[in-house]
Amino acid sequence: MTSKLINQLCLIFFISLFLGCKSEKNYSSKNPNIIIIYTDDLGYGDVSAYSKGTLNTPNIDKLANEGIRFNNGYASSATCSPSRYALLTGTYPWRKTDLRVITGGSLVIDTTEITIPKILKNKGYHTGIVGKWHLGLGSGDGVAGSGIIDYNSYISPGPNQVGFDYSHIMPDTQDRVPTVYIENGNVVNLDPDDPIDVNFFHQNKHDDYGLPTGLKNPELTSMKWHHGHNGSIVNGVPRIGYMKGGEKALWSDIDMADHFLIKAQEYIKENKDNPFFLFYALQQPHVPRTPHPRFEGLSGMGPRGDVIIEADWCIGELYKTLETEGILENTLIIFSSDNGPVLNDGYYDDAVEKLGDHTPSGELRGGKYSLFEAGTRVPFITYWKGKIKPGISDELISQIDLFNSISEIVGAEYKSSDGKDLSNLILRNKGNGREELILEASTRTAYRKGDWVMIPPYKGQAISKYVNIELGNSMDFKLYNLKDDPSQRTDLSEREPEKLKEMIESFVKIRGRDFSNIENLVLE
Q1: What confidence category does residue 204 fall into, taking pLDDT thresholds of 50, 70 and 90?
Q2: Could you count the other beta carbons within 10 Å of the beta carbon of residue 150?
Q3: Residue-range domain boundaries for the chain
Q4: What is the pTM of this model?
Q5: CATH code matching the domain that covers 31-196+245-430, chosen among 3.30.70.890, 3.40.190.10, 3.40.720.10, 1.20.1300.10
Q6: Mean pLDDT computed over every residue of the chain
Q7: pLDDT tens per residue across span 38-49
């Protein structure tokens, strides 16, 4: 072998070694890509890996069966806007004054607050959100969720002002106007000669602009409204609120899942060479359920079942993209839902009639809007190919804990006072989960500690007349032991007075409210 050949081989070796080191630097186990897949109104029993229902979700099951499936994973709230706020900030939503479901309102995350994307930006991540936002836009008049938004100019503050480098979102939900996508603060495909105007009931402007509505023109709708969803008609679907203009910017409902998937795939491909964070917020199975025709009828349960199958397919396609781009083994995936399930939530779509033997809530009581377990206990899965070993955890974990846990995983110092660092549990299925948790539903709160749950007295209807879900309201304290009674059918408040007293005292320490008087507990 000549000296020249030896020198060439040495050069090739050192170049390969250098490139290998560079790759290791970009893709070390301490600095994974992070994707949070967040579904909308998906129940504890809607994922087949939990063995509670009859739907089949093979792609979500792959994450669950090859990662860690948490049986006691919680959203912070039984409704979507508060849950999203808590996930991104690590802060209980009830600490934010009167934070409820947002309809066309101002941004509820203060731009000075630390968020998960801000933490990751500071550690060199590119950060993106694709899908449902529902945390408000613009500054409004300073009252959470009450602002009026000008959709015809750059909209700020929004996702890009709270830590996201890239955002491609729907403003609120699929059942509300404006039915347009917003990318980095600008409405996509907006024609300046056809400006958008939007108003809602709570803004004291009941102007339908003389256009057809679900209330006036049911003959023009392809979906019959059940309650509340009788405003402007877009693509045959009557919505919450009124809208005119923006014809070229209107989304296609049946193509929405594909649209968000493509945007998520593009984001991954564009940022694969450096660490990235993607918040992939699917719209399914929230109403209106509008599966693409290729998914219609596949579930046998009507549109609700079909869009869950569609969402599962999207997750499988996203997984394939990570695999094809060669970054699957350096990507931490966290899967969950913003709150529990609901069947009829504004439209007649056979969700009730075609449910069959399927149990969206599993054996849990209640659902969306409820203080019972099905309101906030949701599918919760962590997956990292080759790093996370398959397992099942019964430890208590909340989405609020993702703030502290992700901070620890990437070596950041930020910690929220409400969250817990459960990174060891998330990655290795080791260590204890949290001991206690405040559960929230429409500003009402309950308390879980260990296997026990206490629900304070609240005025109001016991069962929602609109969605037919038990809300957890009563004039008495309720106490349940989930180990013996996961369905919360046996109230132990009278049999276990000392345990009830202990739970109330612990609850008060966190809530910081004077609950010594029953009148202070019975709230609207």
Answers
A1: low
A2: 14
A3: 31-196+245-430, 201-243, 437-521
A4: 0.92
A5: 3.40.720.10
A6: 92
A7: 999 999 999 999
